[in-house]
Amino acid sequence: MTAPLRVLIVDDDDLMRAGLRAVLSSDDTIQVVDEAADGAQAVARVREARPDVVLMDVRMPRVDGIAATREITASTSQARILILTTFEDEDYIFGALHAGASGFLLKRTRPEQLIAAIHAVAEGDSLLSPSVTRTVIERMARSPQPDPADGRRLRSLTPREREVLDLVARGLANAEIATTLVVEESTVKTHLKRIMAKLELRDRVQAVILAYETGLVRPGEPPVPGVPRP
């Protein structure tokens, strides 16, 4: 039997932490290993409890969720960070994603969606709520000219790896990418591992951000397999 996923809940609201614990404890695939009331506690509890996933609020006293996310992802911890917040503020979204969060959900998310998101993030996938995805795309549409240094990083990819990155940035799952490119799903996973290693990325969220910021993918433009981008 597979061991349950270890989850740390971080929120400064006692009632919210209790509610999340009740929701997650009802699922036998998840074990809530600890709680924290602010970012400073979260960093300490990650070292002690060694969770697989951290459910992280953003606005908290002392150390906020973005700063805590940055510190956790920069450490040796393998914990994935899933932001769970009331706020859709653009700066919060991009601050969290750039800090290394693997997902960003709103607190109005249904319990079953939250549980599914925890599993997805633990498996190395990324997850954004639909409204957050729209915010990301709109922000990228207004983004400044790509950094030449990032463009040079992309040149380390093979044409097929660039195709895979393009499709990841458009929100396709591994199985959908495999169907689009007419390859095995295992081949897609291999390409993704190489992309992450070459570009020094932690997960798919960072890959999506880089793809838009470098101009590899442009909002509203359909994918063109096999055609090189800047």
TrEMBL record:
GO MF term set: DNA binding
Keyword entries, A-Z: DNA-binding, Phosphoprotein, Transcription, Transcription regulation
GO biological process: phosphorelay signal transduction system; regulation of DNA-templated transcription
SMART domains: HTH_LUXR, REC
Signal peptide: none
InterPro entries xref list: CheY-like_superfamily, NreC/VraR/RcsB-like_REC, Sig_transdc_resp-reg_C-effctor, Sig_transdc_resp-reg_receiver, Tscrpt_reg_LuxR_C, WalR-like
Domain (Response regulatory): residue spans on this chain: 6-122
Residues recorded as bearing 4-aspartylphosphate in the entry: 57
Domain HTH luxR-type residue range list: 150-215
Descriptive protein name: DNA-binding NarL/FixJ family response regulator
